[in-house]
Write a structure and sequence with these properties.
Elements lengths: L39 E5 L2 H4 L12 H8 L16 H15 L3 E5 L2 H4 L11 H16 L3 E7 L5 H7 L6 H17 L5 E6 L1 H9 L43 H23 L1 H4 L2 E7 L2 E4 L4 H24 L4 H7 L8 H7 L5 E5 L3 E6 L10 H5 L1 E4 L1 E2 L2 E2 L14 H13 L5 E6 L3 E2 L6 H4 L3 H19 L4 E6 L14 E2 L3 E3 L8 E3 L1 H10 L7 H7 L15
Parallel strand pairs: 1-2, 1-14, 2-3, 3-4, 4-5, 5-7, 6-8, 7-12, 12-14
Antiparallel strand pairs: 8-9, 10-11, 13-15, 16-17
Helix pairs in contact: 3-5, 7-9, 8-9, 15-17
Protein name: Beta-glucosidase 17
Family: Belongs to the glycosyl hydrolase 1 family.
Keywords: Glycosidase, Hydrolase
């Protein structure tokens, strides 16, 4: 853990919440009354992770439909999202659970190929897909729940991948614009918050550098092994084509990112010119970032920490705020980093009404000079070494995924950095959450006792409130996730939900974890069990009945 002198890179260290030198500081319990009345509390999911129904009612194939069935070895348990948690058929029950919890907003995504099965308007609209999302939106509004819609959470129409390699081609911009305009036209009278892209950094890094996401390009593509687990609903089937691992990680990530930013900017331009005045909504982009803390007090490590954020968050945020990439990227990447034309710069600059931030964890960062003979690619261009320990002390306790250490103070530093660096934007925390491993040796009763998750949300909310008290304009917070779901390359091996999903016996029953009850009481401003007593209240033997939050 950082010592007190080094804990804050961007502000003073007089804050009592930040003056801690252990991994488990004493932090008070948060209350709903600590936040403004108009502060939005919601929960988030995405289509491929929850909907299922991958080949029904005219839906077309997405890259993830093909990838998970053709190359299951890239998924930790060899699974796929063909069924996921079957929200396509259970959405009315799920909306009722949102209402029961008292959440004000539901962030979900619209599957491109459920609306345009052939990827573009000329290939035809899917009326069943439009009806599904109309029904979902209307069901939310009936219960007083605001829909927040993500337009691209990584599911590219497979036909566009085959035709011109998806986001590697500038042609994707036109097809994406056709898709989003259909969404604005069909749903914009009721959707007042749009997110064009979700975590474009993750899509770019995992798909075009590491090869772990479709289209699985990059020199360092890894195979995790096809360790199929006991999930009968999610076993893979033979796919229509093999996945190529060709690619140039020195250029392709930057090309893909450039096309993503242009697609975003054109979508915002369409919304602002044709729909925003009439429909009265807002539009932005969601980006993920860890907080990067300098490993030492040296200037080179401080510069490395700033550079690390530039290469993750700034890669996508700087263009839509300033019209160009961060200077550190221009310096390190050189001519491999695409240029915006004068017209594109005008289009891209200030192409947002709010910034969505997904925060999960933090790392220490130190300078790592480029070594002679090293290839130039996204990873070496950063010239950074990431670590999770300083002087033998971890930056935070572990969670269910190796990449996720619990570092609540990082959210304070991150949103404060965004305020100070990017002109004091309106911010929504569009994802924040923690996972536990999917331990099938536990019965359902034991699986519901997720005190770590309660502590995680409590502590992050307190640090977020502290940032708001210092002027950061955070307007909302979305839990990741409402349900245990399909977690991309981790499959069903980890659980992020505040609702437990029974995958093993095929029922997909939703059981509220202790965190769901905590959220319900928090939002209703009812007394909750103090966190220091939660562990004592846990039924260690898993005895007693399993209670469900009834949907009606």
């Amino acid at each position: 853990m950082a010592n007190q002198n080094n804990l804050l890179m961007i502000t003073g260290n007089d804050d009592t919440l930040l003056n801690h030198n252990t991994n488990t500081p004493t932090i008070p319990d948060v209350k709903r009354a600590d936040f403004p009345e108009d502060f939005v509390f919601g929960a988030a999911t995405s289509a491929y992770q929850v909907e299922g129904a991958w080949n029904v009612a005219g839906k077309g194939l997405s890259n993830w439909d093909v990838f998970t069935q053709c190359d299951p070895g890239k998924i930790a348990d060899g699974s796929n999202g063909c069924t996921a948690i079957n929200q396509y058929n259970f959405f009315k029950d799920d909306v009722a659970l949102l209402k029961k919890l008292g959440l004000q907003s539901y962030r979900f995504s619209i599957a491109w190929t459920r609306i345009l099965p052939g990827g573009r308007l000329s290939s035809g609209l899917c009326k069943a897909g439009i009806k599904y999302y109309n029904d979902l939106i209307d069901a939310l509004l009936v219960e007083g729940i605001e829909p927040c819609v993500t337009l691209f959470p990584w599911d590219v129409p497979e036909c566009l991948e085959l035709e011109y390699q998806g986001f590697l081609s500038r042609r994707i911009v036109q097809d994406f614009c056709e898709f989003v305009e259909v969404c604005f036209w069909e749903f914009g009278d009721r959707v007042k918050r749009w997110i064009t892209l979700n975590e474009p950094w993750s899509f770019t890094l995992q798909g075009f550098t590491l090869g772990l996401f479709p289209p699985s390009r990059g020199a360092t593509a890894l195979h995790l092994g096809n360790a199929l687990k006991n999930f009968p609903l999610h076993r893979t089937k033979p796919g229509p084509r093999p996945i190529s691992t060709a690619g140039n990680p020195g250029t392709e990530p930057y090309i893909v990112a450039h096309n993503l930013i242009l697609a975003h900017a054109h979508a915002v331009d369409i919304y602002r010119k044709r729909y925003q005045t009439i429909q009265g909504g807002q539009i932005g982009m969601t980006n993920v970032s860890t907080w990067c803390e300098p490993l030492t007090d040296t200037e080179v490590d401080k510069e490395a920490a700033s550079r690390a954020i530039d290469f993750m968050l700034g890669w996508f945020v700087a263009p839509i705020v300033t019209g160009d990439y961060p200077e550190s990227m221009r310096e390190n990447v050189g001519e491999r980093l695409p240029e915006f034309t004068e017209e594109e710069e005008k289009l891209v600059k200030e192409s947002y009404d709010f910034l969505g931030i997904n925060y999960y964890t933090a790392h220490y960062t130190s300078n790592l000079p480029l070594q002679p003979g090293q290839p130039h690619n996204y990873q070496t261009d950063q010239r950074i070494k990431f670590s999770t320990e300083r002087n033998g002390m971890p930056i935070g306790p572990p969670a269910g995924s190796e990449w996720l250490l619990i570092v609540p103070w990082g959210i304070y530093k991150l949103v404060t950095y965004v305020k100070n660096t990017y002109g004091d934007p309106i911010i929504y925390i569009t994802e924040n959450g923690v996972c536990e491993k999917n331990d099938k040796t536990l019965n359902v009763q034991k699986s519901l006792y997720d005190v770590t998750r309660i502590r995680y949300h409590n502590d992050h909310l307190l640090y977020l409130k502290k940032a708001m008290d210092k002027g950061v304009r955070v307007k909302g917070y979305y839990i990741w996730s409402l349900f245990d779901n399909y977690e991309w390359s981790e499959g069903y091996t980890v659980r992020f939900g505040i609702f437990f999903i029974d995958f093993v016996n095929g029922s997909l029953t939703r059981f509220p974890k202790r965190s769901a009850i905590w959220w319900m009481n928090f939002l209703a401003q009812k007394p909750v069990i103090p966190l220091k007593k939660q562990a004592k209240a846990t039924d260690q033997n898993g005895q007693g009945s399993v209670k469900r939050l009834r949907s009606s």
